[in-house]
Amino acid sequence: MELEEIVDPIPLFKQWLSEAEKKEIRDPNAMQLATVSKNGMPSVRTVLLKDIIDYDFVFYTNYESRKSNEINETGKGAICFYWKSLNRQVRLIGNITKVAEEISDKYYRSRSRGSRIGAWASQQSRELESRDILMEKVKLMETKYTDDIPRPSHWGGYALSPIEFEFWQDGDFRLHDRFILKPTKIKNQWIAKRYYP
What are the structural domains of the chain? Predict the structure, then answer.
């Protein structure tokens, strides 16, 4: 990219992700998701990117988890991908909303039986007295759902709609190449500007 250039970040992101899929040992779609509570306390964890719909980055979780509570409180978040094998990073910030139920349903049906059972058994982010209790809940759900396993209402997808992208490439002597992209008023056009590393 040049000093200032009109760019569509999605093809570039997909290219970098495709290159990471060839080199990363595990989970090239892993991303660190940061959220913040209404009191301004941040928290971060790793989740998996499962889809890009238009410009929205989609992931799935328990709607009663800490991350979900913070998303519901502020509607804001940040994502960071770091691919060590490529010495590359992509960072996004934006607004987060739930995806449509039919999108969550479709993805849920694609998951393994064990993962679907786990969505029912786990009360994510709540205190657990022992792992045995969790495994008992798994057995209970396996007995209850011998055939079709419906998606629980407390589990589904969120989408982060970016308002800023940053593409970062490692450079010698810490002279990294860094571009920040912000949207223009024209749909699907973002202006990229180079920043000091």
Answer: 4-195 (2.30.110.10)
